[in-house]
Amino acid sequence: GGPSPYILVHRLYKVNMATIDSSVFSARSSALYSALSDYAAGSSKSDPSLSGGSLGGSFCIAVIAGPASEEFMYRKSAALQLFLFGYELTDTLVVCLQTPGGPGKEGELTKEMHVVSSAKKCRLIEPCIEKCLKDAGVTVILHTKEKGDDGKKHIDEVIARAKHVGLLAQFAHIAKEYTPPFEDSAPFLKAYDQAIKAASITPQDAANALATALAPKDESEILYVRKAAMLTTAALNKFVVKQLEDTIEEEKKIKHSKLSELAEDSIVHPTQVGVKLNEENVEICYQPIFQSGSSPAYDLRPSAQSDDKIMTYDTILVSLGARYNNYCTNISRTFLIDPDDGQQKAYQKLVDAHAAAVAALVEGAKLSDAYEAAKGALGDEYAAKLTKSVGYVMGLEFRESAYVINAKATAATVKAGMVFNVSVGLSDLVTKKGKKYAMQIADTVLVKPDGEAPQVLTDAATKRYSDIAYNLEGDDEDEEPAEKENAKSRDAKTKGKKEAAAAAAAAPAGAADGPSRGRNVLIDNKLRDNVDGDMNMADVQDALTKRVNDETKDILDRMKGRAGSGSGASSSSASAAEPVSYKSISDIPAYVARDMTIAVDSRHESILLPIMGQVVPFHISMVKNITQHSEQDFSYIRIVFQTPNVTGSPVAGFPWAQKHPDLTYIREINYKCIDSRHATKVLSDVKMLKKTVMQKMTEQQDRASLVKQETLKLT
User: By the number of CB atoms within 10 A of the CB, which of 222, 250, 516, 669 ranks highest?
Assistant: First the structure.
C-alpha cells in the first residue's frame, strides 16, 4: 500500500514487533499541543464555538484506554493513540499538561506528556523521548506499571503533578468514554475512577478540544485517505453497479443484507475490485447499506442498516465506506429504476445541492455556509425535504460530532486538510404513482489550502443522471416517451453491454426523437403508436416495409452518395455524401466537454477527442484503426485516420477527399493516459462501434439491391 510514516502492524499483532517513527511522533505531538493551546486560550486561531475560554493557554487533558474489546467502536481515545503512536495501546493513560513557566521563566510554557502503561509499551515510546523534547518542546514522562498492577499509584503521581502546577481545575477527559461503574475485568479503568474521585476532581469534557487537533490532516494522513477513497470508489464502480445491473438483468431476488455482505467482501479483499492494497490495512467503516422500496421508510442516517427484505426495482440507495490504516471514507449513490420526470427533476436538484455544498467548503468558510449553499440550490420546492445536516468531518473517526455541517454551525470554520463526508439527502418524496422514496448523494471531500477549490476524492463514481437511471423492458405504455428517453439503457433486460451499444448505434440518424434504446419493446410501442388501431395486418406490413426502405435510402444517401429517385441507380456525381457526427455543437454531450476525456458516442457513431482544450468529434468512419500499448505506469492510445494519399486522390473507404482537395487532414493522433482501464475501454468501444457501423452499412447495401417481386398469380 505504499510508504508509511510507521512500521505498521495490525492491531492484533504483539506490540513488541513494532516501532514508532520518532519524527512523526514529534511532529504530531507539536501539532497536538499547538491546537490544544489555541483551544485553551480561546485564541482567534480556534473555532469560537469549540473554545475553552481564556485560560492563558494552560490545560490538563487525560485520555485513557481500557482493555482490548472485540466489539468495534469508534473512540476518540483510540483516535488520539493512532494519531500519535500509529496503533492502539490498551490499558494506557496519556495526560497532556501545559502550564506557564516557573520563576524566572514567566511567559514560557512548560509542556509535559505523561504516559502510564506497561513496561513493553513504555519501551516502545522511550526511543522517541529525546527527539520529541528537541523538536516539539514536549517532555515525555513514562510511568511504568508492573505486570498485574492496576496502575493506581502511577495515576496518583500524575494527578499530584497536575495539582502541583495548579491544573486540577482545568482537568478534562473524554466524558462520553467515562462510564462508571467499571467492571472487575477493567482494573485500570477502576483505578483511574478511584483516583479522580479521591482528588475531588470534577472533569471537564475534552472531546471538542481533541477534535480541533485531529480534524486537519497532515500529508501522510491525506495519503491514507486517498487510498481508502480509491478503494471505496472501486468497490462501488466495479462491484455494486455491476451487481445491481446483473440482478436486474437476470431478474434475481436478493436481500439487502446479502448485497451488504457481498459489498463488504469486495472492500476487505481489494484485489477483487482491482485495487492493490494490503488486506491487513483495510477495513470497512460500517456495514454497507442497501435500501429500496418505501416500507419501511428510507433511513438516510449513517447508522442505517440493510434489512433482510428483497431488493425492489424502484429507488435504490447504496452507501459504503472503506478504511485504510484506520482512516475513513464514504460514498452514497441513488439508482433510479423506471423514474418519472418528477424523480429526474428531484435528482438534478439533489446533484446541484451537493455540488453547492462541496464548493462552499473552502478554507476559512463557516460550516453553515455549506448547508445554506445546499439549501439555496434546492429552491423552495425541495428545501423542506433537505436533511438537517449535509455532512461532517471524517478521519480516524467516521463522524466528528464537533464539525457537523448544519444551519447551527455558524462559528466552526473550515480548515485546510480537513476531510468531509458531504452527504446531501432528500426525504419524504413521492412519485407520480404515489410511492414514497428518498434520495442521497455522498462523497469524500478534501479541503485544500489558500482558498483553492475542494477536491472530491470519490468523484470517479459518477453522479450523472444518465448513469444512475435505468429503463427496464416492459415499461408501461402510458409512460411519457421523454421519460424513457432520459434514462440511460445499460445492460438491464439485454444480452449485455455490447449488444446494447450495437443496437443504439444501429438506430437511424433521423430517429433521435424516439426512444431508440435497443429494446424491442420500446421500438414496438413506437411503431404501434404510429399505426392506426383499425389497420389490418397487410397495412401494418406495408408500413414496416416503407420504414425500412426509408431508413435504407437515408443511410445510402449519406454514406454512399446514391441518388434519391428511388430507382436504385448509382449517381454519376463524383462527390459523395459526407458523414455527419453532430448537426450542432450543442448536441455534443456536456460531460465530455467538462471532463475533457476521450469518449465514444455510439448513438451519433462518433468518437470525441480533446484537442488543444476543445472537444473535437470524428465520425467513426474516419477512423482507420486504433491501438493501445502500455509503458511503465501509463497507457498510450494511437488513432490512425482515413486520409487521402500523397497525390490527393481518394483511397478506398474515403471518397470525400475529392470534394475538399485543399484541406489539411490529420493522419494520426496519440494520447498518454494515466488510467489504463479507461484506455482499454476506449479501445474496446471504438472497435465495437466500428464493427457495428460497418455491419449495418453492409446490411443496408444488401437490402437496397433487392428487387421487388411482382405479385404472384395462381392459375
Answer: 516
Amino acid identity, residue 666? I
Across the beta sheet with 599-601, the strand order is 599-601, 606-611, 614-619
Q: Are the C-beta atoms of 330 and 420 separated by less than 8 Å?
A: no
**Rounded to whole angstroms, how far apart are CA atoms 583 and 629?**
34
Amino acid at 570: S
- pLDDT tens digit string along 375-400? 999 999 999 999 999 999 999 999 99
Hey, how many other C-beta atoms are within 10 angstroms of the C-beta on 486? 16
Q: What is the DSSP letter of 236?
A: I
CB-CB neighbours of 177 under 10 Å: 17
CA angle 675, 465, 494 (to 5 degrees): 80
Query: Can you read off the three cell numbers belonging to residue 425?
Result: 439527502
d(CA 234, CA 41): 44
Residue-wise pLDDT tens digits, 136-174: 999 999 999 998 899 999 999 999 999 999 999 999 999
Residues shown for the chain: 715
User: Cis (ω within 30 of 0) for the bond into 181?
Assistant: yes
CB-side neighbour CA atoms (13 Å) of 110:
18
CA 171 to chain centre: 41
SS3 374: helix
Give the E-state strand segments of 367-447 in sequence order. Answer: 389-394, 400-406, 419-430, 436-446
**What whole-number distance in Å separates Cα of residue 38 and Cα of residue 670?**
54
Instruction: Return left, alpha or beta for 434; rule: phi > 0 is left, psi -120 to 50 is alpha, else beta.
Output: left
The neighbour count for residue 186, using CB atoms within 10 Å, is 16
Cβ-contact 226, 457 below 8 angstroms: yes
Exposure string (b/e) for 274-301, b if CB count within 10 Å is 16 or more? ebebeeebbbbbbbbbbbbbbeeebbbe
Least confident of 270-284, 472-486, 517-531, 551-565: 517-531
Alpha carbons 233 and 240: distance in angstroms, whole number: 10
**Residue 28 burial (CB count, 10 A):** 24
CB 420 within 8 A of CB 391: yes
CB of 58 closer than 8 Å to CB of 170: yes
CA 240 → CA 228, 234, 245, 442, 468, distances in Å? 17, 9, 9, 15, 12
8 Å CB contact between 509 and 527:
no
For residues 351 and 366, is the Cβ–Cβ distance under 8 A? Answer: no
Nearest to 34 by CA among 111, 113, 131, 142: 111
What's the rounded Cα separation, in Å, for the pair 399 and 111?
30
Host H or E run for residue 615: strand 614-619
CB-CB contact of 424 with 354 (8 Å): yes
Q: Which residues of 154-167 are buried (b: 16+ CB within 10 A; e: fewer)?
A: bbeebbebbeebeb
Task: Name the pTM for this structure.
Answer: 0.66
